[in-house]
Every structure is written in structure tokens, then in C-alpha cells.
Amino acid sequence: MVQEIYLFLKEQYYLPLYLVTWIVSVFTYRKYFDTALKYFPMFIAYTFFTELLGYFIKYHEDFQFFSDERYSWRNIIIYNIYQVVTFLFFCRIYLKTIQSKLYKKWIRYGVIAMLLGYIINIIFKNPFYEGLYYADIFGSWVLLMCIIFYFKEKKQEKNPYPQKQNLLFWISLGSFIFYLLVPYILLIGNTSANLWFYLHLRTVLLLLILVMYSCFIIGFLVGKRKAFR
């Protein structure tokens, strides 16, 4: 049992980071309970349990979806679903936060185009067995567009509170850094194993996870209710 726990933590050592972030988000919930981020603790919990389920599907037969041994270990479907949910979740946050009608219109167009992108990707790739990496890249463009719109609007806005006290600023910063690179890293991992290992992209990926969730934690800790928007 101890050995299994050790191997689990060795393989999934970023999971405690998700758990710590969730705990901090719950303890600071009063700062943003009535904002567009009120469901953020649920999203972090969803991330944690998705990764946990992914591990059990891969290494424990009782959790596997497929009886065919060739595919029994595959857990990609839960990550495909997770990625769509993630993009929709964040786009909803920015739609509720951004004031510009023009920006909101572009975000709605982006969401529609993103969903069409996933539908097209599914035509060529079976989401139960393969990652929808090209649709993920397009989804990341839409999310990055949302964040850029948000930063641009915040720059033009007069606010007596510094941005470092704005929780959504930190969440946007962490997400921007993460999604600027990660979709391409995952695509390389799927298409070129040699390049993945040569460039140590797993390490880069984990560092980006650390950066993003560190930004989240900083935002929860230093954020102030009146500075939010």
C-alpha cells in the first residue's frame, strides 16, 4: 500500500498542487463568491478529479472503459471532455466580466468557431482513442483572445486598486502563459515522441502547470474583493 502511494505520488506529483490550490480557493471564497469566478473552486476540483481518474484508468483495470486490451489503458476521452469544458468555462467568465459589446461579440463568435472546430476534429479523430489536439490549439487561440481583450479593457479602465489585488488578473496571467505553449507541447508529444524526450517537454509541461497554479494561489491570497473585475 505504501509502495503504491509512493509510486502514485511519483507519477502524479503535481496533483497535490491542485489540491492545495483548491483548499486556498475555498478558504478565500468570501473574496469572490458573488463574482464571475464563484464556480472556480468547483473547476479546480474537477481538474483534480479528472487527473485522478486518468491515473486510475491507465493503471487499474477496474476503472478502464474498454474491454479491448489494445485500448483498455486509454484515458484520453476524459481529457478531451475536460478541455472543451475548460474553454467554455473560461469564455463564460470573460463574457460576464468584459464590458465591451464588440469584444463580447467576438468572444461569442470564437466560441461558436471553437465548437465547430471540435466537431470537425471529431470527424477525423476518434475522441475515445485520440486527442483532439488541433481543436485544442484553436480553442487556446479563442481563450488567449479573451484574455487579451480583458487585459486591454483593464488597461483603459480607471481603477483605484492595483492589478496585483485583482484575482482575475492573476488567473488570466497564469492561463495566458499556460495556453500560449501547452497545446503545442501536447501536439508534439502526440506526433513526435523523439522530440518530446529530446526537448524534455514533460518537464516543461509540469513547470507550466506549476506557474499557472502558482498564479492562481497568489491571486487567491492577495486578491481583494473591491479590486475584482
Task: Kindly list the characteristics that best describe this protein.
229 residues, mainly alpha, 72% helix
Fold and architecture overview:
The protein is mostly helical and 229 residues long. The chain has one domain (2-227). 72% of the residues lie in helices and 0% in strands. It is built from 9 helices and no strands. The protein has helices spanning 2-11, 15-27, 40-59, 76-97, 101-124, 133-156, 167-191, 193-198, 201-222. The chain crosses the membrane at residues 12-29, 36-57, 77-95, 107-125, 131-151, 167-189, 195-222. Keywords: Membrane, Transmembrane, Transmembrane helix.
Overall form: globular
Whole-number tally of structural domains = 1
Mean pLDDT: 88
Q: How would you name the oligomeric state of the polypeptide chains in this document? A: single chain
Relative strand content: under 5%
Topology diagram in text:
Elements lengths: L1 H10 L3 H13 L12 H20 L16 H22 L3 H24 L8 H24 L10 H25 L1 H6 L2 H22 L7
Helix pairs in contact: 2-3, 2-9, 3-4, 4-5, 4-6, 5-6, 6-7, 7-9
Keywords: Membrane, Transmembrane, Transmembrane helix
